[in-house]
Amino acid sequence: MQITEIFFDCDNTLVLSEELAFEACADLANEILEANGIPDRYTGDQLIKDFVGQNFRGMMVSLQAKYKFEIEKDALEAYVKKEEDKVIAKLEAKAKPCVGANEVLDKLFASKKYGLAVVSSSALRRVQASIKKVDQDKYFDADKVFSAATSLPTPTTKPDPAIYLHALEKVGKTAAETITVEDSKSGALSAIRAGIPVIAYVGSYDGEMREEMGQRLMDLGAKVLMRDWSEFEKCLEYLENAPADIPQSSL
């Protein structure tokens, strides 16, 4: 492969943000369930289990389908904005980089060999707040941070491939010139459906979940498994030297 562009998911791939974000989401999700007379309640951990990789809008679509209720369009937009503000406040206070991510980004940026972009489901303000908090914004031009919730004419969420197709168009690359790093099923599927080879990163998962998620992502069609950012260089080298059909590998 002639790789000239590297995409990165943000949440729990570059920035340890999912736990913080889902804490805020759980409070708001429970408020919505209560307002609709539904007794069930979520913790942040339960939301992560059910909706990791999706944005808040996508979660609300799933909750409405699960519990058979409907949120009016204006009310949904108000909730989306409220959730965004709550999450950003938590991120600006507590977000940390994924272990080893900054060191990898520093080397890639210094090499000037690849274009670098962020492709996320999360709202653009949230992504920008995350990467700024952990000093990663210097690696990405402002017009190369893409959000499925904000950057598209019609907001969506991964696993819809729309945000990856949009990113390819904006950076002027084909899927064959590009790879991405993803940590969730919805994120990996979004990229795979856009034809982009996926490095499955599982370093943000704990214990047995790390291996379990790694297997799930490889079963979905990710091309190489990365358990830690220290393995990125050999994962990239493998993809660059692989044949066009890129067999799967766990290095």
Quick overview:
49% of the residues lie in helices and 12% in strands. The chain has helices spanning 18-35, 44-51, 56-67, 73-94, 101-111, 124-133, 162-171, 185-193, 207-220, 232-241; strands at residues 5-8, 15-16, 96-97, 115-120, 145-147, 178-182, 198-201, 224-226, 249-250. It comes from Penicillium argentinense.
Total domains, how many? 2
Helix content: 40-55%
Shape: globular
Output the strand order for the largest sheet: 5-4-1-6-7-8-9
Number of helices: 10
Major β-sheet annotation: 7 strands, parallel
Give the CATH class of the largest domain. Alpha Beta
Strand content: 5-15%
Radius of gyration: 18 Å
The second-level CATH architecture of the largest domain is: 3-Layer(aba) Sandwich
Distance between the termini: 18 Å
How would you describe the oligomerization state of the chains in this entry?
Answer: single chain
Query: Structural class of the helices, strands and pairings?
Result: alpha/beta
User: Low-confidence parts, pLDDT < 50 over ≥5 residues?
Assistant: none
CATH topology of the largest domain: Rossmann fold
Return the average pLDDT rounded to an integer: 93
How many DSSP E strands? 9
Q: CATH H level of the largest domain: which superfamily?
A: HAD superfamily/HAD-like
Helix and strand succession? EEHHHHEHEHEHEHEHEHE
